[in-house]
Amino acid sequence: MARVAATFMALACLCLAPAVGAPATVSARRPLRGNDTLVSAQGNFELGLFSPAGSSGDRFYLGIWYKSIPGQTVAWVGNRATPLSGLASAELRVSADDGNLELVGPTSASSLPVVVWSSNLSSSSLSSTPGSNNTAEIRDDGNLVLVDGANSSNVLWQSFDHPTDTYLPGAWLGENKRTGEYQALSSWRNAQDPAPGMFYDTVDPNGTAEFFMLWNRSRVYWRGGVWTGGRWSGDVGAATGRGTNLYNTTYVDTPAFRGTTTVLSDNATITRLVLDLNGQKKQFVWVPASRSWQLFWAAPTAQCDAYALCGNFGVCNQRSQLPCRCPPGFAPVSERDWTLSDWSGGCRRSSPLTTCAHNGSTTDGFLALPDVKLPDEPLAVGTARSKAECESTCQNNCSCQAYAFSAGCTVWHGDIRNLEQLFADSSSPGSDFYLRLSQRALQDLHNVHKKKEGTKLWLVVGITLTGVAALGASVILAWRILLARRRLAVSMENENGSSLAVYSYGDLRAATNNFSERLGGGGFGSVYRGVLKQQKGGNTTQLQVAVKKLEGFARQGDKQFRAEVSTLGLIQHVNLVRLLGFCSSGDEKMLVYEYMPRGSLNGSFFDGGACPSWRDRYRVMIGVARGLAYLHDGCRERIIHCDIKPENILLDEDMSPRIADFGMAKLVGRDFSRALTTMRGTIGYLAPEWISGQPISAKADVYSFGMVLFELISGRRNSERFGELEAAGTFFPVWAAEKVVEGEVGAVADPRLHGDVMPEELERACRVACWCIQDEEAHRPTMAQVVQALEGAVVVHAAPVPRALQRLAT
């Protein structure tokens, strides 16, 4: 956890009234029964019994969840490992005997009500007055408390001292030195079982001021770094700028307790920190505009860095939708657990190894797994000087499970953990890993491979014969389709004034070589490079294009899609990427754009390329401003881009900027907010009104443009940290806005330029950027005014530091 810098302003508060008639407290005389719930005073949180989403509905848990956030986001669970089997006799009550808070009900082992969970306070911890007077309540910070019946200010027990997988602001994580009890996070076992899983996040048991993430409570796989006085040195949220300044962090170390807590910078923010069942610690913030949780950072950043995520013999693949798979010749130990994203049980051999003879020899062989990160705990075999000797050494040892030979021979005994599939562009090279399999398993794999090859041969023969028979019909059909397409294209041009070409799915699949060269992607789909053949004057020419394969458009009708696309085809400007055509074939929707050889602004300016000159930067600033001004005021119908960022600004061969993805908000409609807030990096450019849920106007684009201006001026992404800003934990736009107000614009410029800038242009651009990121829409200029300012047609005075940024700076 950390002190982090915010790239956005305040989030909207959910001020919701508690349900009418809901009990306010739980006591010995007023228990919580069955489906009854307890709601906090302002309606933020709700306490009751729940059954995990997707489960069979025969297991019930005492839980706390957000009252009015869709999807029942659970933040705490009481009886994690001892679920109730029904609600009929279930009861949360204060014990009349000892004053403890307890959950009573039937279980799978007993149909009679039994105590399955209790606050479990000793008699010395409870009040001297009768325990039956104690009461329990859920507070607006999500804390369930048991209060002394004789003294309401005396909290006897609280859920904040017993977190499950979720940390809420205001709680503490650490160690009670007097009792030896730890306030730590532990993951769920799987998506339907909140019982403690394999991953654990805790303060260092050895007494240092550092937090560890552990596998099986024994193996450290991530460290939070040392406490620097304001944050943890290894904190991902601070290092990346994701979700920065959500809260202020404190660490204490006293004779009684050592640990950390956080206080929200803005009480309207709704955020939670979760140790998920895949072993990553994730910071989420609720975004009312999209009614969804926004992931701000995760640690470790790579999912496969969670130790033994895929269990014994499992292989982790960071680029796969499901990260875990079993190697050939293996199968999941529990298929059901794997369907619930619980891979901890790992894999086992489909066919057992043969029994070793008395001399250690077997008929087992080895399966090669290429390009993998080798598991830990290897044993070096110095006597083996070749791969053959290494294999023989392993084969003749009954306990040897695998070997690898690179600079030397290494072997593995026992279970294999932490295998990871690597790729040619991975940060570290992979190795060939040879896994022991029985002769029968190897033969089965060989037979399967042989059968597939045979099937392919017959398919080739069958397809060839069928193709010859259908060739004549295909030629006739293709000719008819070509004529129909030409008629449709002419029809669209005549009716709408648009000259968009209409392509078939086959056309674009062939042009992109089966979508083989991916240029990039975002929340709306992936972009592929393609080459279209065109007939002009009897000659065949080739046109390079960028094909955007849209995702999530299956529900949109063909007629509606064509109408919206034809409108976009009318929009043409020198600083906009030109739309050439489209494809609408069933669920497949694609847009065809002119190809930009220099790629995006992000790739050309920020990803380690050559340092662009000030002239090129200023040319990009003015070009983007003109393109946005045209979208806002030059079209028949105003178009708000809604996602201005370097990735959506492309460069042609002359380094002229072209804005891409304009009109996507119009195409996607009501789903645009949801798609936008799932895109990595977008959140840093969102205007405050996006976050607070207010209506969106063209001024939202102005705000995003201001953020891009700062990046062009400084030559760095706003989320990056360096030098004095890293030490101070400061977000760059905060620092830059202050420097501009103080008149020190030279400090904001990219140091790689060595002062080779036009001072007047630099000051003008800095001041425009500050005006663009003002809190209130009314205080921001229009894009037409921005163009005038950058061109020097009007005088630009210094802007105040935005109030929200000013609060962050102090």
From TrEMBL:
EC number: 2.7.11.1
SMART domains linked to this entry: B_lectin, PAN_AP, S_TKc
Primary location: membrane
InterPro entries: Bulb-type_lectin_dom, Bulb-type_lectin_dom_sf, Kinase-like_dom_sf, Pan_app, Prot_kinase_dom, Protein_kinase_ATP_BS, S_locus_glycoprot_dom, Ser/Thr_kinase_AS
GO molecular function, one term: ATP binding
Segments passing through the bilayer: 457-482
Signal peptide: 1-21
Domain called Bulb-type lectin: residue spans: 23-159
Binding locations of ATP: K549
Record's catalysed reaction(s): L-seryl-[protein] + ATP = O-phospho-L-seryl-[protein] + ADP + H(+); L-threonyl-[protein] + ATP = O-phospho-L-threonyl-[protein] + ADP + H(+)
The keyword Glycoprotein belongs to this UniProt entry's keyword annotation: yes
Record's bilayer topology term: Single-pass type I membrane protein
Ranges for domain Apple: 356-438
Listed GO biological process terms: recognition of pollen; response to other organism
Protein family: Belongs to the protein kinase superfamily. Ser/Thr protein kinase family.
Name of the protein: Receptor-like serine/threonine-protein kinase
Gene that encodes the chain: LOC123412741
